Amino acid sequence: MPIFIKNEAEIKKIRIASTIAADVLEMIEKYIKPGISTEKLDTICSNYILYKKNAISACLGYLGFPKSTCISVNDVVCHGIPNNKKLLKNGDIVNIDVAIIKNKWYSDTSKMYFVGKPTILGERLCKITQEALYLALKKIKPGICTSIIGKTIQNYVEKNNFSVVRNYCGHGIGKNFHEDPQILHYFSQKKGIILKPGMVFTVEPMINAGNHLTRIMKDKWTVKTKDRSLSAQYEHTVLVTKTGCEILTLRKEEKINSQLIN
């Protein structure tokens, strides 16, 4: 698939979808408490997307995925399927991944939540994961190679004695859910691509407290850490600008500028 350079009109549409996706993650936070099921959280998100925002979940039905959000708890790396039996408990860390279609344009974002009081390890893992994402975003500008993104994340994560999942990566996004380029979150000798203004893609590092290996469950979706260690992920949809990048899915609580001049 070619790498699509978005024009101003297209970027405006992606911005709208991105704002909705960020709104969902802000809205759901107050519901994340011990005893609630991941199914209930998914239903709240689904209703908000459909009825409050007049938008569509990009996850629902994608390659057969059965729910409107991915909700991944503790050792689930990604693609956790919400269900009634999974009740959140004090100390859990939870990722909610929201992808939106609005007027045929896509956005994608996720964040971590603490259930009650987090463990020291859980809190630190989430902090390092978010900081790694921010450090990578501060490198993005025209003329750099995508490999700089992965190298920045890997260096910071491994310096803090955690590991970067290799099996999944960020991706271009726009009129399609997944487009080129692929954005690796670790350094690879394979040639990356040079960034240009108008490119839109996700950066979404998945970081494990143990080693980087993963396993897929029998449902063919849920990905867990192989060593059963905790895993965390933060994701943003970003636009390469002439001077750096714009974080399209920025939430109000985040302490980073939406416009980064790098």
TrEMBL record:
Enzyme Commission designation: 3.4.11.18
Ranges for domain Peptidase M24: 13-242
Cofactor: Co(2+); Zn(2+); Mn(2+); Fe(2+)
Source superkingdom: Bacteria
One Pfam family matching this protein: Peptidase_M24
Keywords: Aminopeptidase, Hydrolase, Metal-binding, Protease
Known catalytic reactions: Release of N-terminal amino acids, preferentially methionine, from peptides and arylamides
Binding site for a divalent metal cation 1: 97, 108, 235
GO MF annotation: an example: initiator methionyl aminopeptidase activity
Binding site for a divalent metal cation 2: 108, 171, 204, 235
Gene Ontology BP annotations: proteolysis
Binding site for substrate: 79, 178
Cellular component, GO annotation: cytosol
Keyword Hydrolase among record annotations: yes
Major enzyme class: hydrolase
Keyword check for Lipid metabolism: no
Cofactor note: Binds 2 divalent metal cations per subunit. Has a high-affinity and a low affinity metal-binding site. The true nature of the physiological cofactor is under debate. The enzyme is active with cobalt, zinc, manganese or divalent iron ions. Most likely, methionine aminopeptidases function as mononuclear Fe(2+)-metalloproteases under physiological conditions, and the catalytically relevant metal-binding site has been assigned to the histidine-containing high-affinity site.
Similarity remark: Belongs to the peptidase M24A family. Methionine aminopeptidase type 1 subfamily.
Function: Removes the N-terminal methionine from nascent proteins. The N-terminal methionine is often cleaved when the second residue in the primary sequence is small and uncharged (Met-Ala-, Cys, Gly, Pro, Ser, Thr, or Val). Requires deformylation of the N(alpha)-formylated initiator methionine before it can be hydrolyzed.
PANTHER family per the UniProt record, alphabetical: METHIONINE AMINOPEPTIDASE
Quaternary structure and partners: Monomer.
Protein name, as recorded: Methionine aminopeptidase
Species the sequence originates in: Candidatus Tachikawaea gelatinosa
Name of the gene this protein is made from: map
